[in-house]
Amino acid sequence: MKKEETQLIVACLLVVLGAGLLIAGFIVPPVGIIDSSVLIAFGEIGTFAGSLFGIDYHYRYKITKDK
């Protein structure tokens, strides 16, 4: 597996995991173990990191494709 493929897979997983945790943070009532603010914060970080990976992949692929 190439580095670019791995990066794209990790980007997609981070975005999906982050979005899922954001949704769970709003739906799941706080049970005292994991507060919803923790889920929301991690979801935002995961979504942001995944989008950065995806943007980096897009422009690397675009530059490589143009050559």
What is the fold's blueprint, element by element?
Blueprint: H1 3-27, H2 36-66
Helix pairs in contact: 1-2
Description of the molecule:
The chain has 67 residues and is an all-alpha fold. The chain has one domain. The chain is built from two helices and no strands. The chain has helices at residues 3-27, 36-66. The two termini are 22 Å apart. The mean pLDDT is 76. The chain crosses the membrane at residues 7-27, 39-59. Keywords: Membrane, Transmembrane, Transmembrane helix.
Question: From the helix content, strand content and strand pairing, which structural class follows?
Answer: mainly alpha
Report the count of strand segments: 0
Instruction: Tell me the radius of gyration.
Output: 15 Å
Question: Given the structure, what is the number of helices?
Answer: 2
- End-to-end gap: 22 Å
Domain count: 1
Q: What general outline do the C-alpha atoms trace? A: elongated
Q: Helical percent range?
A: over 70%
Q: Mean pLDDT, rounded to whole units?
A: 76
In this structure, how is the largest beta sheet organized? none
> What fraction of residues sit in β-strands?
under 5%
Order of helices and strands: HH
Low-confidence stretches: none
